Amino acid sequence: MIVADKKREQIIDGAIKRFIHFGIGKTTMNDIAEDLSVSKPSLYYYFPDKKHLIIGVIERVFHDFFELIKKKYNPDQPLEEILFSTIDVRNTFFQKYYMLRITEGIPDLLNDDVIKGKLQALKGSEKEFFAEIFSQAKTKGEIEHEDTAHVAELYLESLMGLCTMCIMETGKDLFPDKKAFNRMTLKQKNLTTIFVRGLRCTD
Amino acid sequence: MIVADKKREQIIDGAIKRFIHFGIGKTTMNDIAEDLSVSKPSLYYYFPDKKHLIIGVIERVFHDFFELIKKKYNPDQPLEEILFSTIDVRNTFFQKYYMLRITEGIPDLLNDDVIKGKLQALKGSEKEFFAEIFSQAKTKGEIEHEDTAHVAELYLESLMGLCTMCIMETGKDLFPDKKAFNRMTLKQKNLTTIFVRGLRCTD
DNA sequence: TTTTGACTAAAATATTAAAAAAGTCAGAAA
DNA sequence: TTTCTGACTTTTTTAATATTTTAGTCAAAA
Asked: Which residue of chain B comes nearest to A155, CA vs CA?
């Protein structure tokens, strides 16, 4: 990694700190620049606009997330344990970076095509990784389902769906409290247990 | 049913028609009154305020929904078939009454305590009914899971979660198109298949 | 008991001015 | 040449206000 890239990463670090504390909408480029004791045009030297800085942040968070689940992944474990472990990692990240989600702020951040595409691609990567997990489990004879890519997609969407339900229950852009959060994790794990059993049985 | 109640139901009918077409937010009490060729105070004779008229609409829709799934429910069918049937009914209603969902309009309709309580109660009824479905399947020896109430809750939330994912994919308050809608239904059914198998297997 | 025209009070909307933030650029510093 | 900055312009948000629309009321009629 060259020096230039290092600086870029530092800016992303600074942005993340601000975003976590105040949310994307309430953070200005000036805030970030001041935190780093540089001028605003410096930021624009590394990022064409705020949107691309946000994309940098998103990429970083996902990258760290992928690193961690890959590091923790042990194909020798039973499938259920593997998935439980990823649920814990995912939810730790979810909690830590919750403020990034809050759409309040940038008007239509989620409607932006570039960001939508990026998120789509990252979701694709995650899907691929999970397809690999299910494939390995199939190779080990732990499950009997054919289309692992399809299964991975269904599984991930179900988990995310439960997560969204949890957020809606809490009430829009309120931070879900510890209790609601644990209930969500439990539900995700309960679904995982039934799901894994369902993949095991053929008939 | 007395004449008074009949009039009340007619008002709800009129409100539903408007709501379906323009959404709750864009519909005024005057609009509804004019459609029915009565004066606005007439509406207020039957409903203390707009909120209670909306509650009346919600109750009606859920009532019709429950009537239909109960009518279609045949305990002798395999569990999977029963659940498939309810998915179809649910999604038909979902599509028909989608405009009721669009929160755009009445600012914090979903944050209102009375409406929240009502929806909670109705969701509770649905949960109970599904717990009954799972209990019956258990009695028939089709599944082996103990806590049917818990299973019902998990199942329903997973389905709703997939639905929410579909809506988010389409993009906020845009009506999901036929294709996205069918994809959603398919996912819900695929999950159901795996879920039912998962309940069948003990280990 | 049910309905209404004419009313008030509250809320949504449109308008505008002021402030804040995004983004640019010529040129300095490394 | 690459990286950075002060001073600038343009675009967006925000705040303040006037205007319209809508919810909800009430005395009285059907």
From this structure: B191
Rounded Cα–Cα distance for residues B111 and B89 (Å): 27
Long-range contacts, A127-131 (Cβ 8 Å, 24+): A127/A152, A127/A153, A127/A156, A128/A152, A129/A66, A129/A69, A129/A70, A130/A86, A130/A155, A130/A156
Q: Which nucleotide is nearest to A50 (CA to C1')?
A: C22
User: Hey, are the CB atoms on B162 and A162 less than 8 Å from each other?
Assistant: no
Torsion sign, CA atoms B80, B84, B90, B91: positive
| CA–CA dist A195, A122 (Å, integer) | 24
Contact B155, B130 (CB under 8 A): yes
Q: How far is the CA of B107 from the C1' of D27 (A)?
A: 33
Protein residue closest to C1, using CA and C1': B4
A198 and B198 within 8 Å at the Cβ level: the answer is: yes
Per-residue pLDDT of chain B (203 residues; tens, 9 = 90+): 455 589 999 999 999 999 999 999 999 999 999 999 999 999 999 999 999 999 999 999 999 999 999 999 999 999 999 999 999 999 999 999 998 876 655 667 778 889 999 999 999 999 999 999 999 999 999 998 889 999 999 999 999 999 999 888 876 667 778 899 999 999 999 999 999 999 997 66
> Residue B185 to residues A77, A138, A164, B179: CA-CA distances in angstroms?
33, 26, 18, 10
